[in-house]
Amino acid sequence: MSAVCGRYPGNVVYFPDGSAQTGAEVAAEISRYDQALASFGIGEGDKVALLSGNLPASLHVTNATMFNRSCLVSLHAMGSVADHAFIAEDSGFDTIVFDPRRFAGTVEQFGAAAPGIRRFLSLGPCDFADDLMAAAQARIPRPLIAPELTGKEIFRLAYSGGTTGKPKAIASTHEAIAAMFAIVLAEWEYPGEVRQLLCAPLSHSGTVVFLPSLLRGGSIHVLERFDPLEVFKAIEKYRITCMLLVPTMIYALLDDPRIDDFDLSSLETIFYGASSMSVTRLKEGIARWGSVFFQFYGQAEAPMTVIVLQG
Questions:
Q1: Same domain for 191 and 288?
Q2: For residue 27, which of 54, 78, 66, 53 has the smallest C-alpha distance?
């Protein structure tokens, strides 16, 4: 991570709160959060749950866990209190990092039923949690040093959708994550000039395009959440060349009556996965945007990387 940010220190990540950080500034923030997590006693082997929208801090916490050798447990922003309570019990995470603006009430509810949670860390002021964001900003950035790993260590626990029963924890190792990034860089069809629009959750699939976009010398524009109008506005304003979507998002864009009100001609690549896309809707998309669709197949055990269908 430090090498990537150092290689392109001037690359800019634009966040929905109006802030922007260069590659070098992202590295500095990761260092701050790495130190802040350590100050709360979080390190190797600890399980850290994250429940947040697309805040800059969400990205930095995710990357910081890679450096302090803890295990990230991703909680979906659309999950219910019961969903989160089950994952807390099943995974045994003892720390929850959350965005208090959106999830304070949710965390209070499932936290009360999860006695194994010992640390409540908020990304901003919260009356029942320690402010991780404030703790991070009080730190002085240090050079990021990659930990010594075998690659077999578990970096993240992701939970299945629960279609055949209760959701199941699926472990991703550092080795698997490194392989995923290598394949994404080698096989995915990126435009010559990368201006990536990111509206997927940073706590989940959104981070998959973060490092590759920086490595290709590109910029990243992050939206708080998926909204067709905001997507149209961002594509036109920033001349977006690529974005990561799932088919239901593509359908929503195609069906939105405002689609003809914006210049979307800069789009060169739409990466999509998570489910197959209707042939009829794919033809409709190609008729409107051209041959911009790049489909990937993966599974939680091998995210994004089982097979790709190039354009």
A1: yes
A2: 66
Contacts of residue 89, Cβ cutoff 8 Å, sequence gap at least 6: 114, 116
Q: What is the pLDDT of residues 70-105, one digit of tens each?
A: 999 988 888 888 889 999 999 999 999 999 999 999
Question: What CATH number should be reported for the domain holding residue 45?
Answer: 3.40.50.980
> Which residues contact residue 165 at a Cβ distance below 8 angstroms, ignoring those fewer than 6 apart?
none
Task: Indicate whether 186 and 102 sit together in one domain.
Answer: no
Task: Kindly state the tokens that stand for 133.
Answer: 């964001």
In a domain, 49, yes or no: yes
Q: What's the pLDDT tens digit per position in 212-245?
A: 888 888 899 999 889 999 999 999 999 999 999 9
- CA–CA gap between residue 126 and residue 25 (Å, rounded): 26
20: left (phi over 0), alpha (psi -120 to 50) or beta: beta
* Helix intervals (H) in 138-271: 174-187, 210-215, 228-238, 247-255
H-helix or E-strand spanning residue 3: helix 2-7
Report helix, strand or coil for 228. helix
Q: How far apart are CA 132 and CA 38, in angstroms?
A: 11
Same domain, 113 and 47: yes
Tell me the pTM.
Answer: 0.89
Count of beta carbons in the 10 Å neighbourhood of residue 143: 9
Which pLDDT value is given to residue 49? 95
The count of domains in the chain is 2
Q: Which residues contact 228 (CB under 8 A, 6 or more apart)?
A: 252, 253, 256, 258, 259
Are 185 and 212 found together in one domain? yes
Q: How many other C-beta atoms lie within 10 A of the C-beta of residue 69?
A: 18
120 domain residue, yes or no: yes
